[in-house]
Specification:
DNA primase, PRIM domain, globular, about 425 residues, 15 helices, alpha+beta, 9 strands, four-stranded antiparallel beta sheet
């Protein structure tokens, strides 16, 4: 099964079901709590940009709202098939045409990893489709980026408030919501992307990874993650050396022509098994490193693993302060899947093919007797649907943010008392 299997609803059917979803299930109050960050800065939510994609691909940018009631009212009124979240600006985005010096001032540090960027190393799906055989690429990305962003032994960034979200179709998003992350300048965001990027070069360049000593600790950690599951992904799921075309694709990643010749000769004695061929290639590199132990170590095997499995970031999404990203809990207009959050610690068990769809959720509401519910019960309708477990993840994330905000207020209160004293 792939995500293409979920594309059963027409655009018109999605637009017909969306009003019920927005009125009954979309977590507006939680959204406001998230994007206002405790109202420590009073105009934080008011100056936030949203964009709506409506029927016939009508795109509305610079939407902004004074409070959660206005936000909910406008979403229900416009019934967007897609909703994106942008930066916090120096003034209300809806006034951008009349404000002098209108500019973005803060935004979460966001990352967008799209499966279509891995089409050269996955052989199970094409275009926008994903399946359980290629999804491990997203698992690699989550584990590697989560560890790098949270930091370990003070080597990396030390961010703590990361919200991971399935895009609803073919990728994942990460929202880094720490205060220090939201305040990063464009140049620092650029530096972070550079730090996290190991694949360099355009489409015409085959070999994109070059490792040298000393290998940075973050790269070592990434390699540890990849090595644990490389065989499962590359050999079992992708059969990545299953035919001559796939073999030549890998050989293009090796610069040493003698090494290529030796590998080709060794592969002649192998069966059709990708496992046996990969073992022969690894042995060839090992023999070369032993033979030339005084020379610079050849990291060819590690470079191949990284090129196949290391996260591929959309740098523009992360660097640009005025770039918008699809909102969590909106419905993907192509698959009708809800963009749901998940825990990085449980990414191995997260199945993108089993996330709730719009029709499934509406059916669950109808099945649970929505017509007879009281107003209070309607506000908690999500608890009786497949969306509940994902909203609980979001709620837990908001509780962590609230703890940060409470600590911030106490700190500022203490400073004021000291100043008065």
């Amino acid at each position: 099964m792939t995500t293409e299997s979920n594309e059963e609803l027409s655009r018109q059917e999605i637009e017909t079901l969306l009003p019920t979803y927005y009125q009954r299930l979309f977590p507006f109050q939680m959204f406001y709590k998230w994007l206002s960050y405790g109202n420590i800065q009073k105009n934080y939510f008011m100056n936030r940009e949203f964009s709506f994609t409506l029927q016939e691909e009508i795109y509305l940018r610079y939407q902004s709202f004074s409070n959660v009631e206005e936000f909910k009212k406008k979403v229900i009124e416009k019934n967007p098939v897609k909703m994106d979240i942008g930066a916090v600006y120096s003034a209300r985005p809806k006034d951008h045409k009349t404000v002098i010096g209108f500019q973005p001032v803060e935004k979460e540090l966001v990352f967008d990893i799209d499966m279509s960027d891995y089409n050269d190393v996955r052989f199970c799906c094409t275009k926008a489709a994903i399946c359980q055989k290629c999804w491990p690429l997203m698992v690699f990305a989550v584990k590697i980026l989560d560890k790098a962003l949270r930091g370990m032994f003070y080597l990396d960034f030390g961010f703590n408030r990361l919200l991971w979200v399935y895009s609803g179709r073919r990728g994942i998003h990460c929202w880094v919501c720490d205060e220090k992350a939201r305040q990063l300048s464009k140049s620092v965001r650029h530096s972070i992307v550079d730090y996290l990027t190991l694949l360099l070069g355009g489409d015409m360049q085959a070999k994109k990874v070059n490792l040298n000593l000393p290998i940075h600790e973050s790269v070592r950690r990434a390699l540890d993650i990849i090595k644990r599951n490389f065989d499962s992904f590359a050999i079992e799921n992708q059969d990545f050396l299953g035919d001559q075309e796939k073999i030549e694709k890998l050989l293009r990643l090796i610069k040493d022509e003698k090494m290529k010749t030796d590998i080709r000769n060794d592969l002649k004695h192998c069966s059709t098994s990708s496992a046996e061929k990969w073992g022969a290639i690894q042995n060839c590199f090992t023999k070369t490193n032993i033979k030339n132990f005084k020379a610079k170590k050849n990291f060819g095997i590690e470079e191949i693993m990284i090129q196949y499995c290391y996260p591929r970031l959309d740098s523009h999404v992360t660097i640009g302060l005025n770039h918008l990203l699809k909102s969590p809990f909106c419905v993907h207009p192509k698959t009708a899947c809800v963009c749901v959050p998940f825990l990085a610690s449980q990414v191995d068990s997260f199945d993108p093919l089993k996330v709730p769809t719009l029709k499934q959720l509406i059916d669950e509401i109808n099945k649970n007797g929505a017509a007879s519910e009281s107003q209070e019960e309607k506000l908690k309708a999500y608890k009786e649907t497949s969306l509940n477990q994902y909203i609980e993840i979001f709620k837990s994330f908001l509780e962590e943010l609230a703890a940060d905000q409470h600590a911030k207020k106490l700190e500022e209160s203490d400073k004021k008392r000291i100043f008065k004293f």
